[in-house]
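Entry type: protein chain
Record version: 2
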Amino acid sequence: MAAVSGGGPRTTGVRVGPIDLAARVDEALAVQAVAFGLGAEEVEVRRHIVLRHLDHPHARALGALTPGDRLVGFVYGMPNERGHWWSTVVEPHLRATGSAHWLDDSFVVTELHVHPDFQNQGLGRALITALTDAVPEPRSILSAIDTDSPARGLYRSLGYQDLARQVVFPSAPKPYAVMGAPLPLLRT
């Protein structure tokens, strides 16, 4: 794993590269809990989901690690399959906007989280671009809470556009937007 240069993180010594997310799932979920405001019960539910996703033969995960090997950010995803739960939830919304074709030949960025102490330093950008640069699919899709947030601003700066809005996932307290971008992602 090497430090990222040229548009990468501005945090001295933090390096972005492949990680064994299954082995570091509890560390990753601790980052997600702080970044996303999750309680212990929600973290436990997500733990099982992450581990199930990692069983996919083409799942990929990257981490942002400090010189002391502390995980301060992570991203993972996999090629989309229409039979996956996420696809079945978003498909009617994408169909309604004429965007259902985005579910084919796409790489889904499933989760991207950076610890708040390390946000606004380029780590999210470095993680998502490194992840999607290494996949063969011609486009990427993801879902994000449907508000004007720094995360949505990052995605837009990378070329993601709204494909559907106000998508409600079962048990999610807020609606999401589904976003898509051609690959490779834009560089600023």
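Comment: The CA atoms of residues 160 and 181 lie 4 Å apart.
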